[in-house]
Amino acid sequence: MRWSEGKDPARSLEALETKARWVRRETLRIHHLAPETRIASSLSDVEIFVALYYGGVLNFDPDVPRWEGRDRFIVSKGHGGVSLYPILADLGFFDRRHLARVCRAGSFLGAIPDMLIPGFETINGSLGQGLGVACGIARGLKRKRSAAGVYVLLGDGELYEGSVWEAVMFAAHHRLDNLVMIVDSNKKSMLGRCESILNLLPLEEKFARFGWEVAGVDGHEVHAVHEVLSRFKNSRQGRPKAVVANTIKGKGVPLLEQDALCHVRTLNGQETLAAMGEAE
Amino acid sequence: MSGELKSMRDVFLERIHAAMKQHDDIFLVSDDFGSRVLDRIRADFDDRFINVGIAEQNCINVAAGLALEGFNVYAYGIACFMSMRSFEQIRVNVAMTSQLQPMNLNIVGVGAGMSYDVSGPSHHCLEDLTLLRLLPHVDLFSPSDWQTAARLADYSVAEGGPKYFRFDSKPTAAIYSPEDDIDLAVGFHELIRGEETCIVSTGYMTHVALKAAARADECVGVVDVFGLKPAHERPLYEALCGYDSIVTLEEGFIKRGGLDAMVGQILADHGSRAKLTRLGVDDRYLFDLGGREQLHRLCGIDEEGVLNAISRAVSA
Q: Which of A247, A266, B20, B95 has the maximal Cβ count within 10 Å?
């Protein structure tokens, strides 16, 4: 059954919060089994994924991942896509047993997701490319007169890539109001805080000046994330839409939250188990 | 050779213009690069012509997004920038992606080799044959004349998959006539069957090869390679069998991965004992002015240079 056709999504605040806690725990479980995964980057975007998939924002069909009527969702910050694995398994895109085999021979679930995984649209990992591809898809959907939307998740560090801004200009010029960009603004890149590497702020004003409809949101208030995404889903007023989600890298794990260099930090077994307890 | 000079891009785009009338799923994405015929496409199909601005990376990304939605897309720009500024976009969103999902994406690069002669080395395109040969799944075409470009246009409409077309920027004479039986899928055509020596050339250099062959003392063979990838190794080897000396000729860097490397590998893999002479640009950029022939002279790939190489190889 398609989510757009009546399956009841867990839209209540409590249900979404419960899902977010569960996803955080499952993501840590994956990291425990596959320490190669980028855990801090995969914890800042949890509420975004939960709102998109459990909040009735995205239309999809787990039985037919490439269903023509689906909303396209591109995880341009691919290294942060590991927390989407438990969600896709939970929704039936693939069997849950795959979650125990991340990064192992024969599995399609790697440290960085690609379109071999049911539910992923593109090959990710090379930053700065998802938004441009999303623009092409959005333009194509308009040509087809499709009602489907295009959603793309970027990291804030990814905004250093010049190709992102080529696409930011393109989307506004071509009035791609079927496109929603979500920036997981966790304020940290690999070598530290973005503020000290190369200041990106003020982000919301930048996108607004480029002609986008913009909303800032606390990226860990799942209800607020859900509210803005739902509003943007239904708003088609000639402008692409940007959600700047203010998040915390490594959210839910104090060891990561407090570490400016958490991007490449791998939690050891004990730390992961402790963090899973905290995520309960 | 027909005397009429035509540019490959205009002939190619004329065919695409006609195809766009018949097929409403064709898009053309340009990086603010035009042509006389492109103006007609812009006027007639403004809903399927997209100018991304001078932004090659986004040109390929937008084209890839359209191709993922099932459209047949032409990404059109200057060869050196399309192949190099956006090489990584081609690598990830065209080559890699097409391994997992079929996509019809045709990259059209204008300005092959030294055709932008006096614009200097930033506009010369001496690397694209090597670079595009590196990428799995992307077919690579380097035609020598507008007749081949016209056939490639029809081929690109009919045959899916990612392709890169390397076109000269200057109008050139036709080498082929419409009646010639050219097999585009096999990637090369024997223009002259020679005796001891054969020139294997690609793109504009096939014109030089033919002129040099016409002046040579012996009957020199000429094979025009218009499709470098996929390489059809056995047929090409068979075409070169029987020659003692093979001279490769390209407007590109040699000893890296271009035409010379392709031919050398095929000869070696089939146990050929023919002597191989590689003519092209050897490990330097060209800041010199004076036009294309002057650049050819400096690199030893003008008619005289080719004739000298032929006699050196034969007397060796």
A: A247
Contact of A8 with A263, CB cutoff 8 Å: no
Chain B residues whose CB is inside 8 A of the A138 CB are: 65
pLDDT digits (tens, 9 = 90+) for A206-255: 999 999 999 999 999 999 999 999 999 999 999 999 999 999 999 999 99
Contact A137 B69 (CB under 8 A): yes
Question: Which chain A residues contact residue B67 at CB under 8 A?
Answer: 136
For tokens 């040099």, name the residue.
B212
Contacts of residue A134, Cβ cutoff 8 Å, sequence gap at least 6: A72, A74, A76, A150, A151, A152, A167, A179, A181, B65
| A165 close contact with B: CB closer than 8 A | no
User: Average per-residue pLDDT in chain A?
Assistant: 95
Cα gap A65→B185, rounded to integer Å: 35
Position of tokens 């839209």? Answer: A11
Complex ipTM, two decimals? 0.96
CB–CB of A146/A69 below 8 Å?
yes
- Residue A269 touches chain B, beta carbons under 8 Å: no
pLDDT for position A3 = 60
3-state helix, strand, coil in chain B (%, to 5): 40, 25, 35
> CB of B213 within 8 A of CB of B185?
no
β-strands B172-174, B2-6 pairing: antiparallel
Partners of residue A148 in chain B, C-beta under 8 Å: none
Separation between Cα atoms, residue B259 and residue B248, nearest integer Å = 7
Closest residue in B to A116 (Cα–Cα) = B100
Q: What pLDDT was estimated at residue A195?
A: 93
Q: List the single residue in A116, A133, A174 with the smallest CB-CB distance to B61.
A: A133
